[in-house]
Amino acid sequence: MSEGQAVDDDRWARWPEPWVGTDADMRTVVGAIPREVKDGFRYDEIPWHRFSHFYGPGEEIPVRLAALASGDAEAAGQAVRQLWDHLHHQGSTIAVGALAVPFLLRIAATGSSGLRAETLRLVAEIAWCQHFGDGRREGLLKVAEDPEDAEGTTMCPVDWTIQAARTAITADLHLLFPLLPNPDPEVRSATAFVLATATGEIPRISSALHSRLAVEDDPAVRVSLILAIAQLAREDQDEHAPAWARALWSDAAQPLETRVGAALAWLCLVDDPVPDELRTLLTDPCTDQLSELFQQAPWFPQSTTTAADCAAASTKCSRRMFPGTVLDGPPPGGRRTITLEPPTVSRPWRALRPAPGSKRVGDG
After folding, report:
1. Can you give the pTM of this predicted structure?
2. What angle do CA 169, 174, 176 make, to 5 degrees?
């Protein structure tokens, strides 16, 4: 074995520690971007060439971003679809996506209003772990990725990319708060979705979300605000959040979608057994009407488009949220329960820690 091979093997054996703080650590790379570079859309000062996207070289990303920010509606629409494919293919996050986050946020704040919600949802998905419709109590609001998972091209831990994206979002909260009262309910929901991934200023963000919830009149947006508040509370280990969620779902004077959204939030915040009162709420036949409404919340991918699709997905959510309860089977009279989880998606291949002496594709 050559000396170079031995050094390389040792580096891989200690993965990912040798990458910390280097130009292979996306947290360091994104954190080093000056605000004036982001505000000025100075794409040429970003090291796109070092990171590929899912279908090609990273240098293509600023081209797509420029098209998205252009006044050409057709070009912008095509660009946002390409960016979804390039940066979040099949639910996976890739390192170069974190580099795009600061620019996507600025485009969402100033660009085409028709693509604002879709752009914001892409930002949030880059800052999330692969959830693949995980409707379990411990999975639905999870943000961080398994630290052992790495990208197959850069070998950068995926969670480092997620951390970098979340830090970039936190640095640009000033762009997001003005979007909470946006006239478009999809933008309001998507903004809550993005804010829920932030890593700092949690009390300020939570306060803004609570304030918006107090005046929000759109049912789907209310659900999104509740889940965003719960997600931040879960990440911040807020001990007061479960009581808030329980008070909300226990209040019969609240709209049904608010109660069900709060029930879902409460279930994700605690490990307590499901109370009879909650089981009664979620098996009430009136909840059946909420299936399509919940698909409008960005926590639930919009892949179930028909009533039949929504009904089929509802059973799976019940089984995961309430294993071993009456919700594990069809409710009395054959009524359907609420849709809270999208269909299961098969997990694509992801690179894990390489064995010592192994090589990545493209290594000499």
Report:
1. 0.80
2. 65
